[in-house]
Each structure stands twice: as C-alpha cells, then as structure tokens.
C-alpha cells in the first residue's frame, strides 16, 4: 500500500515528548477543596513503516506504561488503532476521524464503564495539534445523558 495524506498526517506525532496530565471530572474526585492530581512522564513515538505510528508512554515514576498504534485504513475511510496499558487488561480499539482543518483527530472507542465494568461505555481520545512542538490529548466519556465529559487532559511538549 502507498502512503496517503492521512498516513502522512500521523508523522507529526513522531518524536520524543514529555507530558503533564491533569485529571478532570469523570474520574474519582479529589478531596473537597483540593486540586485535581497532576502526573507527568515521557512518550516516544516512532514510524512503523510508512503507514503506521507506534507510541509508548511511561509515567514519571516508571511504574506505568502504555502503547498506542495508529494508522489509516482507506478501505474503511477512517483512522484505526489500539491502546493498552500496564494498568488494565482491556485492549481499546480505536476508530478515528480527522477534522476539516486537519488539526484534531478524534479517536472513539468502547470500554468498561466506570460504574459497571461488565458494561461497555463510549469514550474518546481527542488529539489536538497546536504546533510542531505542542499537542494535547483530551480523554472523555459519554455520560448517561449522552453528553461528553472530560476525564483528563495531557499536554505533550516535544523534546526532540
């Protein structure tokens, strides 16, 4: 398969990054009057041929890892991928859409509900490219009213 513009879009994710993560609503809440927890770590994203990128994230304390795979499937007409973590047993499968301005990639997935892990709920990871050296990823879930609720925001800054 020959790379298409949608494949090349993923190349801007390649590199070494640091991140800070801010927890939002939808996750266990901090004590009254306290700030939501913040975490930090690193991410390394590399090309996997011309059609895929693979990223590995490590928490700042080295205790937690995650891996993401992202590609574009021209037959399906959307981005595809997976995400898994050393903290859980569930394999998240993505279906992604790029916005018209080609700045925001919304990756949708179903996964275990916070309230009942035997039931699947709808989630999204929204990657926003702000410039060559800064991007964000906002994770959100769909509540019982069909509204999207932010769970966390990760701020990525390119190291190299």
Brief overview, please?
The protein has 160 residues and is mainly beta. It is built from 1 helix and 10 strands.
Commentary on this structure:
This protein starts with a helix and ends with a strand. The chain has 160 residues and is mainly β. Strands 1-2-3-4-5-6-7-8-9-10 form a ten-stranded antiparallel β-barrel. The model has no long low-confidence stretch (mean pLDDT 92). The chain has one helix and ten strands, in the order αββββββββββ. It has one helix spanning 5-10, and strands spanning 15-23, 38-48, 52-59, 65-73, 78-85, 92-98, 104-112, 120-131, 134-142, 148-158. 4% of the residues lie in helices and 58% in strands. A hairpin with a 3-residue loop joins strand 2 and strand 3 (52-59).
Radius of gyration: 16 Å
Number of strands: 10
Major sheet:
10 strands, antiparallel, barrel
Order of helices and strands: HEEEEEEEEEE
Poorly predicted segments: none
Helix content: under 10%
Structural class: mainly beta
What is the average per-residue confidence, as pLDDT, rounded to a whole number? 92
Topology of this protein?
Layout: H1 5-10, E1 15-23, E2 38-48, E3 52-59, E4 65-73, E5 78-85, E6 92-98, E7 104-112, E8 120-131, E9 134-142, E10 148-158
Antiparallel strand pairs: 1-2, 1-10, 2-3, 3-4, 4-5, 5-6, 6-7, 7-8, 8-9, 9-10
Properties at a glance:
10-stranded antiparallel barrel; globular; mainly beta; 1 helix; 160 residues
């Amino acid at each position: 398969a020959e790379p298409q513009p949608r494949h090349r879009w993923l190349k801007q994710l390649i590199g070494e990054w640091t991140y800070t993560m801010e927890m939002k609503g939808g996750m266990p809440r901090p004590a009254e009057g306290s700030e939501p927890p913040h975490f930090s770590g690193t991410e390394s994203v590399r090309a996997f041929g011309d059609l895929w990128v693979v990223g590995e994230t490590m928490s700042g304390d080295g205790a937690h890892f995650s891996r993401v795979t992202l590609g574009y499937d021209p037959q399906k007409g959307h981005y595809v991928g997976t995400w898994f973590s050393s903290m859980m047993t569930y394999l998240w499968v993505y279906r992604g859409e790029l916005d018209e301005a080609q700045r925001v990639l919304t990756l949708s997935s179903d996964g275990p509900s916070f309230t009942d892990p035997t039931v699947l709920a709808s989630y999204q990871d929204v990657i926003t490219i702000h410039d060559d050296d800064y991007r964000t990823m906002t994770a959100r879930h769909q509540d019982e009213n069909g509204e999207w609720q932010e769970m966390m925001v990760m701020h990525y800054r390119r190291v190299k």
